[in-house]
Design goal:
Layout lengths: L17 H6 L8 H10 L1 H6 L4 H7 L2 H8 L2 H19 L13 E4 L15 H16 L3 E6 L7 E4 L5 E4 L11 E2 L9 E6 L2 E12 L2 E7 L7 H4 L10 H21 L6 E5 L6 H13 L3 H8 L3 E4 L10 E2 L1 H13 L5 H6 L12 E2 H7 L3 E4 L2 H10 L15 E2 L6 H4 L2 H11 L2 H4 L15 H29 L4 H7 L8 E6 L15 H8 L6 E6 L7 H14 L8 E4 L4 H10 L2 E4 L11 H7 L3 E5 L4 H4 L5 E4 L8 H24 L9 H17 L2 H23 L5 H17 L3 E3 L14 E9 L8 E9 L10 E4 L1 E6 L2 E9 L6 E9 L14 E2 L4
Parallel strand pairs: 1-2, 1-9, 2-8, 9-10, 10-13, 13-14, 15-16, 15-18, 16-17, 18-19, 19-20
Antiparallel strand pairs: 3-4, 5-7, 6-7, 7-8, 11-12, 21-22, 22-26, 23-24, 23-27, 25-26, 27-28
Length: about 850
């Protein structure tokens, strides 16, 4: 059927016009005062819109608009909030861009910004959303790139047996905080990219996140074939073919979208490997537009590529089988001037292994000068996982750093807690997010006020749980008796333990159920009552995760405990905010070291909840006895059932012997003062060390600003520096196998007194290379029980005379620590255009003769 479409906008009176601007900027998602404007406008419509300000404005009656437009009190609030928003957008920030080329394009498959924009599934998306919000707060010149999903991630519901089912509701983008990007003539900006043999068009949508912009690509337009329209149907659904199409659209399409919108491709940040194809497209465009060869273009792009990996499990990194790669990239490869085998080698740990699949993580690592994991422990795990890409390089030097994730305080603090902090921490708490020392004022808050605020949040959590349980039971067709029980579930005064995250088997959501009788005794203790709230989704294809949810639901039906344990369906940002702010204890039980970082515990901790977790992810560095508990001491196990048994018992012991007694240890005034002291320590610890402003500042200092400086250097003289680096590496590879290092004059196990110096000589054959073209180092340090050097020192060696074709190198080293030490000599590339000397497969160690 042919039709003419029109877009209907609400007729908002002039005095209330600021509401429209506020509704279309997700700044309101971390400013409750702005949210309260919409609640006050029409509370019933706010609930009906499911807390979506844009949709709500279309639901409010004209009579209500006219009424509120003449309400002096309401208008004063509107103007005050709008002035605050305007001041936020125009004030000086931590980072001030130097020029129009200062642009960091941040690519992510999902963004968890607000309940009203359902384009996220879990932790990765929430992290991306907090990254954008913090970039806005700090003034980082960052632009987000993602996909606009017609259905987003699935909505979860449980059938009467407790088995997870999925719904995929349609998103109405004309009633959400997004807008179509238009050109000078008012027409939608479209990009065209080749996905396999199909020319696919994508429309670009814009989301305002404070002063940061997020662009989302959408293929669901009439100009595309039905097969191509569904590419952006849903997040993380479909088969492998749909996945590769989405990732081509995100990576390659995202680059074209930036260009179509007039942005400079200065620096790109790949948040996880989903967007890694962009690294190839950047090279192709440099070849096409600057006349560079492939390796020259690679050296031009690499110093401005940043890659963050979130996956500590090899199987969790995106891989595509070769037939699928051939279908989508064989013709594309021809434009790169590479053989098919060389192209596939870019995505293989062992480029010569013809049976290895193509890994996007490997591709991103090979073509990025900067790479990192998302916690200190995850950095260690990641370096070990991908050490094979840099063969013979000591594990500690694998060029993968770590920046621990963080959470956006204003988003995740309850508005009650924010009000309390505003009163005691002062205006800098909100206006100067880089002033981390302000959080040391937390001790100014009286125990009474902090506890009263927390109890209020626990009460709100309980009320919300009862409402949700009633709704869940109604959807399952339960009888009124069941709903009556749900209306009285939980207590506003009992110790409340929450567990909410993705239900993957390694997260062990059912660990507490390991000893049912022991758990029942805890839950039914009348003197010291305990209650449990669970939430989270299993991937639609994860049968084991679904079985875990079902196990919890069945356990919760036990008449003895049914009012003390609940599982809440469809865990989302709304539910998360209630749980992290209302819980007394936040539980996390992953199998170490499979949790890359985790951020839910940070969100709870900044609200005063105390963490109880395995020493994995962020908690491995965040644990402090003053603000939570550790399950175990960081052990790893080969026997998973044994690990579950040991750590399950340890968790029960913590609850029985420490946590529950501490919570119920009240003074004459009824306050658990020792517990409150830990709450304050938790807030201080998370706010100072695990906020997203600290995280983004680290990215800026370590990666963004150096990469922007690299870009300015590279574009000079038509990328002459990149050409020079490529030429240098080509020469180096030709000579590399000829290089020899001899340490024949060194006696093994020499006894040296502490503080004594030793001159270490080496004879180095460089072929046609000159000493200035390589880095010759003495590599020394104490030796571990496994025979490896740790805490190594790298000491540059000086070249002396050339005798019989060998250069005489030497370095003087002072041994300051006692014990067994080792040393060797090595050669690495050396060129001012290299970000670091660790070029894949180019490290030469001395031979002992």
């Amino acid at each position: 059927m042919k039709m003419i479409t029109v877009n209907i906008k609400p007729d908002i009176p002039e005095p209330l016009k600021p509401l429209e601007e506020l509704a279309h900027n997700l700044w309101i998602s971390w400013n409750f005062e702005a949210i309260n404007l919409f609640i006050r406008l029409d509370y019933d419509k706010w609930l009906l819109s499911q807390q979506n300000p844009v949709k709500m404005l279309g639901l409010v009656s004209q009579e209500q608009y006219e009424k509120m437009a003449s309400d002096d009190s309401y208008l004063a609030s509107v103007n005050r909030v709008h002035e605050k928003f305007t001041k936020y957008c125009t004030r000086n920030k931590w980072c001030e861009p130097k020029g129009k080329e200062d642009c960091i394009a941040y690519f992510s498959m999902e963004y968890g910004l607000d309940e009203s924009l359902p384009i996220y599934s879990g932790g990765l998306g929430i992290l991306s959303g907090d990254h954008l919000k913090s970039s806005s707060d700090l003034g980082i010149p960052l632009i987000g790139i993602g996909l606009l999903y017609r259905q987003g991630y699935f909505k979860q519901y449980l059938n009467p047996d407790g088995f997870q089912q999925e719904l995929y509701p349609e998103n109405d983008w004309y009633n959400l905080p997004v807008e179509i990007c238009e050109d000078a003539e008012g027409k939608p900006v479209l990009i065209s990219i080749l996905i396999g043999s199909s020319a696919v068009l994508a429309k670009i949508w814009l989301v305002h996140v404070g002063v940061t912009k997020l662009y989302l690509l959408d293929t669901n337009i009439k100009e595309n074939t039905p097969e191509n329209r569904i590419i952006t149907d849903a997040l993380y659904s479909g088969d492998r073919e749909m996945r590769i199409q989405q990732e081509i659209l995100l990576g390659i399409g995202g680059i074209h979208a930036l260009r179509a919108l007039g942005y400079s491709l200065s620096v790109v940040h790949m948040n996880e490997g989903h967007s890694a194809f962009l690294s190839i497209e950047r090279i192709r465009l440099l070849m096409e537009e600057q006349g560079l060869g492939f390796w020259e273009a690679a050296e031009a792009a690499k110093p401005t590529n940043i890659f963050t990996t979130h996956t500590p499990v090899p199987a969790g990194n995106e891989r595509f089988e070769i037939p699928l790669m051939k279908k989508y990239f064989e013709s594309y490869t021809q434009s790169l001037g590479l053989s098919w085998s060389d192209f596939l080698g870019l995505g293989r740990e062992n480029p010569g292994n013809q049976n290895e699949s193509f890994c996007l993580t490997v591709l991103a690592l090979r073509l990025s000068a900067y790479a990192n994991g998302v916690s200190r422990l995850h950095g260690e795990v990641t370096r070990k996982m991908w050490n094979s890409i840099w063969p013979n390089l000591p594990l500690a030097e694998v060029p993968i750093g770590n920046i621990t994730n963080g959470v956006h305080p204003k988003t995740w603090l309850s508005h009650n807690m924010s009000d309390l902090l505003n009163r005691y921490l002062g205006p800098r708490f909100e206006e100067v997010p880089t002033d981390f020392e302000i959080w040391n004022r937390i001790d100014r808050i009286s125990d009474e006020e902090l506890w009263r605020t927390h109890e209020r949040r626990r009460e709100r959590l309980v009320v919300m749980v009862r409402q949700r349980m009633n709704m869940q039971l109604s959807q399952r067709g339960m009888v009124d008796r069941e709903k009556e029980i749900a209306s009285d579930v939980l207590s506003s005064y009992a110790l409340t333990i929450c567990f909410a995250r993705r239900f993957a088997t390694y997260k062990r959501g059912n660990l507490l159920l390991q000893d049912p009788e022991r758990l029942i005794r805890l839950l039914t203790n009348k003197e010291h009552p305990v209650q449990l709230i669970f939430g989270g989704k299993a991937h639609p294809n994860d049968q084991a995760g679904k079985d875990m949810i079902k196990e919890i639901v069945h356990f919760a039906r036990n008449p003895e405990i049914r009012n003390r344990i609940v599982f809440l369906e469809d865990y989302d940002m709304t539910l998360a905010k209630y749980m992290v702010s209302g819980s007394d204890v936040w539980l996390n039980t992953p199998r170490r070291p499979l949790e890359a970082s985790g951020t839910s515990g940070m969100k709870a901790g900044i609200n005063g909840s105390l963490n109880v977790s395995v020493l994995d992810g962020w908690w491995d560095e965040g644990f402090n006895p003053d603000c939570g508990w550790a399950i175990g001491h960081g052990e790893t196990y080969d026997n998973q059932p044994l690990q579950d048994e040991v750590e399950g018992k340890a968790l029960y012991d913590l609850l029985e012997e420490e946590i529950i007694p501490l919570f119920y240890n009240r003074g004459r005034d009824g306050l658990p003062r020792e517990w409150i002291a830990r709450m304050k320590a938790s807030i201080r610890n998370v706010a100072i060390n695990f906020g997203s402003h600290r995280m983004v500042m680290e990215y800026a200092d370590k990666y963004y600003m150096p990469a922007l400086a690299n870009y300015r250097d590279l574009i000079k003289d038509r990328y002459s520096l990149a050409k020079d680096v490529s030429s240098y590496l080509t020469k180096l590879r030709k000579e590399w196998d000829k290089i020899k290092i001899s340490m024949s004059e060194i006696r093994d196990d020499t006894m040296i007194l502490s503080g004594g110096e030793q001159t270490v000589p080496a004879r180095v054959y460089l072929g046609s290379l000159l000493p200035d073209e390589v880095l010759v180092e003495l590599y020394t340090g104490p030796i571990s029980s496994t025979g490896d050097i740790y805490e190594a020192e790298r000491i540059p060696m000086n070249a002396g005379k050339k005798i019989d074709g060998y250069y005489e190198y030497s370095a003087v080293h002072s041994f300051k620590k006692t014990g067994r030490h080792g040393y060797s000599v090595r050669i690495l590339p050396k060129h001012p255009g290299l970000v670091h000397p660790f070029v894949q497969s180019m490290i030469k160690w001395a031979e002992l003769t």
